[in-house]
């Protein structure tokens, strides 16, 4: 991995990659303490200053099931994850934009992150068709086709208005082997360029990349270096959610 990168472990199982001392108009990342390979930091986002490491609960459609916002604040929740694909299905990003964004829709004063919809390539694989243009889903709601391109994913997330938005990547299971892994990694790099070009709110939202390459260290290193060269505010690495039993190392 490139020496100009640092890795911070979150309780969610994500590993985020930052350039040391990374700072942008919409993000500041300051390391405040270290212990061996662990570290604590302040992550300053447009809506909140998060202390890491942290736990990020999932609020797929704009709500964390079973808890009120006051309860989430009381237990120290700093950031919530929303799902771009499902939010676009219902209530739609157009409605969220008209209401002032997801923060106002939820009445949530702290940070938000939206994924790109890419994980649905795995979770809804039986409903998805992946090409260079993007991924076409068959809606689980009404069966209608929905084409999600890198550009459309970013446009949707710009309307939703989260502090951190994720680039659309070509997602494969970590247990996948063979040429499909390499194909997904290089497509992810091509798609990140389309995401960067489509991003219209860089001073208000942080576009993060996603490392692909499966468990192949050579492919992952190529992807990491490609993302670092693009000078994004941040990235995420492997997600243990995909395969909780698969060991990984930095």
From TrEMBL:
One of its GO terms (molecular function) is tRNA-guanosine(34) queuine transglycosylase activity. NCBIfam families: tgt_general. This is tRNA-guanine(15) transglycosylase-like domain-containing protein. Pfam families: TGT. Residues 37-235 form the tRNA-guanine(15) transglycosylase-like domain. GO terms for biological process: tRNA modification. It comes from the Eukaryota. Keywords: Zinc.
């Amino acid at each position: 991995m490139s020496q100009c990168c640092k890795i911070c472990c979150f309780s969610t199982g994500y590993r985020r990659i930052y350039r040391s001392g990374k700072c942008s108009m919409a993000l500041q990342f300051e390391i405040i303490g270290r212990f061996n390979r662990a570290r604590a930091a302040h992550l300053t986002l447009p809506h909140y200053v998060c202390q890491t490491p942290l736990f990020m609960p999932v609020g797929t459609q704009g709500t964390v099931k079973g808890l009120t916002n006051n309860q989430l604040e009381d237990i120290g929740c700093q950031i919530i994850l929303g799902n771009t694909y499902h939010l676009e299905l219902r209530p739609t990003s157009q409605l969220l934009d008209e209401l002032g964004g997801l923060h106002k829709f939820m009445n949530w004063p702290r940070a938000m992150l939206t994924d790109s919809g890419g994980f649905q390539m795995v979770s809804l694989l039986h409903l998805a068709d992946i090409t260079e243009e993007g991924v076409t889903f068959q809606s689980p709601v009404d069966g209608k086709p929905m084409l999600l391109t890198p550009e459309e994913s970013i446009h949707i997330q710009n309307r939703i208005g989260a502090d951190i938005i994720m680039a659309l990547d070509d997602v494969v299971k970590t247990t996948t082997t063979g040429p499909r892994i390499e194909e997904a990694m290089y497509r992810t790099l091509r798609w990140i360029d389309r995401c960067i070009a489509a991003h219209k709110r860089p001073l208000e939202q942080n576009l993060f990349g996603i490392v692909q390459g499966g468990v192949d260290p050579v492919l992952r290193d190529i992807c990491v270096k490609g993302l670092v060269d693009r000078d994004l505010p941040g990235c995420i690495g492997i997600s243990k959610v995909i395969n909780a039993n698969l060991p990984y190392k930095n």
